[in-house]
Model the fold of this input.
Amino acid sequence: MQNIRILGLISGAVALAAVACGSGPAAIPAAASPSPAGSSAATATPSSATPTPGAESKSVKGTFVEIDPTGLVEQDLDFEDGLRSARFSLGGWKTDFSYHTVPYDEFLSGGPPRDGIPPLDNPRFDSIDQADGWLAGMEPVISFEINGDQRAYPLQVLIWHEIVNDVVGGVPVAVTFCPLCNSAIVFERTVGGRVLDFGTTGNLRNSDLVMWDRQTESWWQQFTGEAIVGVMAGTRLTFLPAPIVSWQDFMTYQPDGKVLSKDTGFDRRYGQNPYVGYDRVDEPPFLLLGDSDGRLQPKERVAAVTVDGVNAAFPFAVLAEEGAVNYRVNGVDLAVLFKSGTNSALDGARIESSKDIGSTGVFKSELNGQKLTFTATDGSFTDAETGSTWNILGEATNGPLTGERLTKMVHAEHFWFAWGAFKPDTLIYHGVG
Done:
């Protein structure tokens, strides 16, 4: 029976590839020039990233540039032997395959060709009022803020494109979402003074999106932010905090924000989920070589965080019971918060009516030298030390600490199989006691 289910998943994914690729783009809209939104009392804690002056003009979109290898990875003079058994297409690539950090037999074609799932290079944005006309309150959005510029990236759009090359608060970033791993990750995309533009290779590793940059045609693992093939091999992108929250929470707490528009220049069924039923917790993942880590069910969602090299996973099933977890990881006191009211993007045929799986926030629990201890209270959170009320974005909305913000940790709400595959040494939180 298990083999039948796997065959069904493969057949469905092949059909999905055709759907995801679509019939090709319409005319791509001219580049928008979004100005940073004004900050408000509910603005998330700004990142320390530095704006890149003239970032948009420095990005040579679609232009291949020959550069020297980074020197981080030794050249493999026998690389052609590994490529002979490759299960992906080599056609059309300018990639220097003599540099790689992982074996080539770990890659599998996901179905679509290069950029068959098209990234967004010139994203347009709606106002809060405009977006509220087409987003339901419980729909999931990636919430991202830097240098006072607040953006929401609805998963109903990202599920069809997987990558948005954007400039937010003057900082070039790549906003990414791999539906197969439920991995929403934002990176800085300036490397060595060069702004990179990312696309989809059409290949997977551990079921996760493998990206490519147009400037060097190196391949990058979305899950780890590492260049794993090409002259950039060994280079790592910088992660930026970007939690998934409900549209209602973003709209309430970031009212000056902007929202990625459905006006993308592509004909896609935004709002519909092409991966219906994919997030059943006990179903095997698509194109994962080998067995998944059996400590949790394959598609149990986990709030996953790395603290100075120590990896930890907080299962949603446990978080839903406890609401707020106060836990130390590698010497750092964390507050892991859970709030119901956010739909899955990978359940029902329409995201607006899919099941409620909740959302999480992970923060340093120390503020101004004081350690805070949190409990969940009817959709918000209260610290025991001052009695202040906090929201899922780590912002105090009432009490003595009103207006204060906790420091966000980079975390994501991955499916367990993916986190376990890339971080096999991870610790798992099993609840109080």
About this structure: Residues 1-15, 17-48, 51-60 have pLDDT under 50 and may be disordered. DSSP finds eight helices and 30 strands in the chain. Helices lie at 2-21, 55-58, 79-83, 128-131, 155-161, 247-253, 316-322, 416-422. The chain has two domains: 2-260, 301-428.
